[in-house]
Input
Amino acid sequence: MHNQISQADQSGWKWDHSYVRLPPLFYERALPMPVKEAKIVVLNRKLAETLGLNADVLGNADHHGIFVGNHLPEGAEPIAQAYAGHQFGHFTGLGDGRAILLGEHLSPDGRRWDIQLKGAGRTQFSRGGDGRAALGPMLREYLISESMAALGIPTTRSLAVAATGEMVMRDKPLPGAVLTRVATSHIRVGTFQWAAAHQDEAALRALLAHTTARHFPEVDPMDARGFFMAAMERQVALVVEWMRVGFIHGVMNTDNMALSGETLDYGPCAFMDAYHPDTVFSSIDQGGRYAYANQASITRWNLARLAETLLPMFDEGRARAADFANEMLGRFETIFQKRWLAMMRLKIGLLTEEADDALLVQDLLDRMHTAGADFTNTFRALCREDVPPFHEEPLRVWHDRWSERLTRQPQPRHEAAEVMRAANPSVIPRNHSVENALIAATSGDLSDFNNLVNVLSSPYKEPLDAVHTQPPPVELPKYVTFCGT
Output
């Protein structure tokens, strides 16, 4: 039994359900599975304010049940979304196996936000899973997604994590929790693949119109070509931003590629410490498919899968449709390299363009790799012109070339430094710090977690405590992340 919380409670929810106006192929009605108790562990008050919600009301104990699914806000129409996906290259049918979309909240500025409960119980897509989530991984998604938002990178957000008072069984019993995830939508490449796999062109056209209107209003709702080009540009922009801060998604399956251009799914993700282009953290990515340096090529691969679903709408003639798709995908490398180089110019303070800038950038990265230099700290030191990372080979010679390059641009040196400080964070979610905070939080001590959330909310400022900028101790084993968290 799910009791509804009346709109008169002044929490501020304003619901719409444009997604359920799509053909039923794309969703199944689903109710959250009630849990023993509900207790908010962390509430994102700033995000609540952005959404036009009253955080004081939401934080009241009477409302905790909303964040585990025991109660439904009046107007919610919970569903589980259907989608497919290529997981490590293998196609399969999927769907929300433990996530339930309550609906779309309309904020006072007119924006539309999916409100989803992750870990809310079994659905028709659970495929034998329990539909639940553990507290540690949900706190991890909260921390890293909010850090990504502070870094200025498009991302799903986290409104709250609530404990359920129940245990979930993984390799051992763990305290259960539900994450309230906020996104501009959860439409994925895999959503289009789902319709294509069912050979339902009418549903596919409806999805195209819906997604275009929702995320690319500058494109005609039935212009599949314009939609694809806009989607490609947005995916390139996102992955370039990941690479700017050394972020490795870890599981770039097509079901985790949101058409909104937001980072989706924080299971096996992590941030790189020492620069190594082949860095992989995921325990199951044995071949390095989703390594740091492969994220661009995988983005192109995923876009090719999207293009396959759109062929009937690119052109009635299949050969002409395929020619267009290949032509557009052929532009990917140029688009990506142009945006990547523009990003890297900002990271090293180049405010003008010269023909050899790409060589200068690549030389720095090669030397960082050779030296085992910390990715974040090396670029941040360059902002301050600190000597230590550059006082000896292999970085010293590069620093001299870089300094000479800066003299050839008309802007004063301090302007370059300001641009660099805005492009290079001083703090990132260091993997070892995140794990230590989560271990303590799972045991009931949230002090380190809350402190880390606070520090990461201002990533471009120098932290008061230098401990947040330190790489992991050398004696720590290689960091490994896991899917299905």
